[in-house]
Specification:
CATH architecture of the largest domain in chain B: Orthogonal Bundle
Order of helices and strands of chain A: HHHHHH
CATH superfamily of the largest domain in chain B: Alpha-helical ferredoxin
Radius of gyration of chain B: 23 Å
Structural class of chain B: alpha+beta
Low-confidence stretches of chain A: none
Number of domains of chain B: 2
CATH topology of the largest domain in chain B: Fumarate Reductase Iron-sulfur Protein, Chain B, domain 2
Distance between the termini of chain B: 39 Å
Strand content of chain A: under 5%
Order of helices and strands of chain B: EEHEEEEEHHEHHHHHHHEH
Oligomer: heterodimer
Helix content of chain B: 25-40%
Structural class of chain A: mainly alpha
Number of domains of chain A: 1
CATH topology of chain A: 3 helical TM bundles of succinate and fumarate reductases
Largest interface: A-B, 14 and 17 residues
Helix content of chain A: over 70%
Low-confidence stretches of chain B: none
Chain lengths: ~120, ~280
């Protein structure tokens, strides 16, 4: 059930991204509409750090990072693997995409953690 | 004599013994109403191009041998009437997405190999009954309806010729094999999904389908393989999360004597035609 699982996670990531990205937009870009504060105020360094130190925000951003990365990289892998590749090259693409995902996740997680512990 | 119309046939010719690349050849033919592309090819071969090669057999859209690329669309030559195409120039080429053997003959081996890979037969837990049947596995009308339309597939390969994914990814199992995988998997007598997973739960399986729907449009028998692929995806996902079919829904065998009795009960009365 390998590919079926990959594909199911790919689909499940869609609602997760929609909800979390929606929250992100509401908090960061539509603050005047939802919170009655100006965009500049919502995007100030102090406001960012204040939100970043919140445990719920921290968890939601990590979740968004995982869902976004997985969805995007699975799609990218699908596009690349459609090219006529040898079996060895196809395996290399799978591992390459996985490693890129791990590196970007570690970078994103580090930044989120840095903000949380600021 | 019936009215005819002068039609120019542009036929793609290729002889691997002589040609390095295919070329187009033009033949003019007076086409009467009702003449099919296949009949036109026979006439052209008889009168103008004796070496022209193609594959055909039944002439009635049943065997699936005469798939061709007519006016840039995959069609059965025996089911396509020339005048219904509505053009004065009719192009005839071998099916795309297949290797060209000669003239209009495609190499259908990939189609057969992909079809065989999904194990297109009933796999039942009671293998003894399959090998030495003592009766028949009875199926309800509703159970048969679940896969009925997919049994109309004649393995002509038009769907693979129309498929944009096969065009770029030759390893993609394709609409024919995947729809047949669904046909057998959903059959109430079958419990062979696990054995089919090797072929279908892979990168080149149903998840590579771009959902263009070209396969369903091309199918000369009205099968909807694109829908079959989506149904197969649902079956696989349900199975992966533990809601799949655990075993065959039909485990009881109706003894042959009972089957015969049932047939006799609904048999028509004997013929009473006299001279």
């Amino acid at each position: 059930m390998r590919e079926t699982r990959f594909w199911t996670w790919h689909l499940l990531a869609i609602p997760v991204i929609l909800v979390l990205l929606g929250l992100h937009f509401a908090v960061q870009h539509y603050a005047p509409v939802f919170y009655g504060v100006s965009v500049e105020e919502a995007r100030s360094f102090e406001a960012m750090i204040a939100r970043g130190k919140d445990m719920t925000q921290f968890v939601l951003y990590i979740l968004l990072l995982v869902a976004g990365l997985y969805h995007g990289l699975y799609g990218l892998r699908g596009i690349i693997r459609e090219l006529p590749l040898s079996a060895a090259l196809a395996r290399a693409v799978d591992w390459g995409v996985f490693m890129v995902g791990v590196v970007i996740f570690l970078l994103g997680a580090y930044v989120t953690w840095w903000t949380f512990s600021f | 004599m019936a009215d005819t119309k002068l039609i120019t046939f542009k036929i793609r010719r290729y002889d691997p013994d002589k040609d390095t690349t295919p070329h187009w050849e033009e033949h003019k033919l007076n086409v009467p109403d009702g003449m099919t592309v296949l009949e036109a090819l026979h006439e052209i071969k008889a009168e103008q191009a004796p070496t022209l090669a193609w594959r055909s057999s039944c002439r009635m859209g049943v065997c699936g041998s005469c798939g061709m690329f007519v006016n840039d669309l995959p069609m059965l030559a025996c089911q396509t009437q020339v005048l219904h195409l509505g053009t004065d120039v009719v192009t005839v080429a071998p099916l795309p997405n297949y290797e060209n053997v000669k003239d209009l003959v495609p190499n259908l081996e990939p189609l057969i190999e992909k079809h065989a890979a999904i194990k297109p037969f009933i796999i039942h837990t009671n293998s003894k009954e399959i090998e030495e049947p003592t009766g028949e596995f009875i199926q309800s009308v509703e159970q048969r309806d679940e896969y009925s339309q997919f049994t109309f597939c004649i393995k002509c390969g038009l769907c693979l010729a129309a498929c944009p994914t096969v065009a770029t990814d030759p390893l993609f199992l394709g609409p024919q094999a995947l729809a047949q995988a669904y046909r057998y998997t959903v059959d109430s007598r079958d419990c062979g999904l696990k054995e089919r997973l090797v072929a279908i739960d892979a990168f080149h399986g149903p998840y590579q389908c771009h959902m263009a729907g070209a396969c369903s449009q091309a199918c000369p028998k009205g099968v909807d393989p694109a829908f079959g692929i989506q149904l197969l995806k649902r079956t696989l996902v349900l199975d992966s999360i533990g809601f799949g079919k655990k075993e065959s829904h039909v485990s009881k065998v109706m003894p042959l004597a009972d089957v015969v009795a049932q047939i006799e009960e609904f048999a028509p009365p004997p013929r009473t035609v006299t001279k």
